[in-house]
Structures are given as structure tokens and as C-alpha cells.
Amino acid sequence: MMSMSRRMLSKEEEETAADEIEVRREDQDKINKFSRLHQHELSIEEEVKAKHKEKEELDDITTELELADEDDVFPYKVGDAYFHVPLEQAQEMLTTSSNKLEEEISELEDKLGSIREEMTQLKVELYARFGKTINLET
After folding, report:
1. Which residues pair with residue 75 across a beta bridge?
2. Which of 20, 42, 40 is nearest to 32 (CA)?
3. Which residues, in sequence order, are CB contacts of 40 under 8 Å at separation 6+?
4. 31-76 confidence digits (pLDDT tens)
5. What is the rounded end-to-end Cα distance, in angstroms, of the chain?
6. In this structure, are residues 119 and 38 in contact, taking their beta carbons and an 8 Å threshold?
7. Which of 2, 62, 72, 73 is the most exposed place for a label (fewest CB within 10 A)?
């Protein structure tokens, strides 16, 4: 059984490995694609995190409005402007916004899943070709 210990390659191992495996155009394309996918993955992860935070804030506001007086009006931000709306309308608008955010988060998570699948497939192909001489750990 082969041990999978991680260590730096010595200069000799690097030179030997570089001599043994030629990087073909298609290999370079796969490496570039993996890199682009990884950058896209990080970007989407940030977007998902921001949308989760926004959803949390909407949930907090919804909870606070449950304690409000039905006769009050509340400022509701649409774009750059605030509109004063009755409690029931504010709650409906919050529910709509919350549902929309949930859909967006779900779509982004689906996108992340397919990006990660593609990255895994590229890892398999590239590690099969280059073995220890390439590092695709993210």
C-alpha cells in the first residue's frame, strides 16, 4: 500500500518529473479551466454567504413586525426610496423578498454543485496524467 504523505518535491524530483511528463495543449486547457472554475466557485460562495445574511436580516425584521401594532405604518425600502406601508403589506412584501432570496440561494447552490462536479472530473483527469507533479487542492 502506498503512503499518501504530503511533502515538497526535491529539486531532483521536480526536474525528473518535468522531464517525464510533457504538458500538452489539452492539459493546459484543462488546468486553465480548473482555475477559472475555482475562481467562479469562490465568487458564488461569497454571493451565497451575502444572500444568507440578507435572508437572516429579513427573518429578523419579520419577527419584529409580528410584535408591531396593526395600525402602524412602516418605512419599506424599494431601491433608493422608502415608502410608508401598512403592517400587512410590509409583511407580504417581506415574505415575497424572502421567498425570492431562497430561490436565488437555491439556484446558486445548484450552480456550485455542478461547478464542483466539473472540478472533480478535471482533478481526476489531471491527477491521472500528472500524479504528484500537480497540485489542485483548493
Report:
1. 84
2. 40
3. 115
4. 999 999 999 999 999 999 999 999 999 999 999 998 888 888 888 8
5. 26
6. yes
7. 2
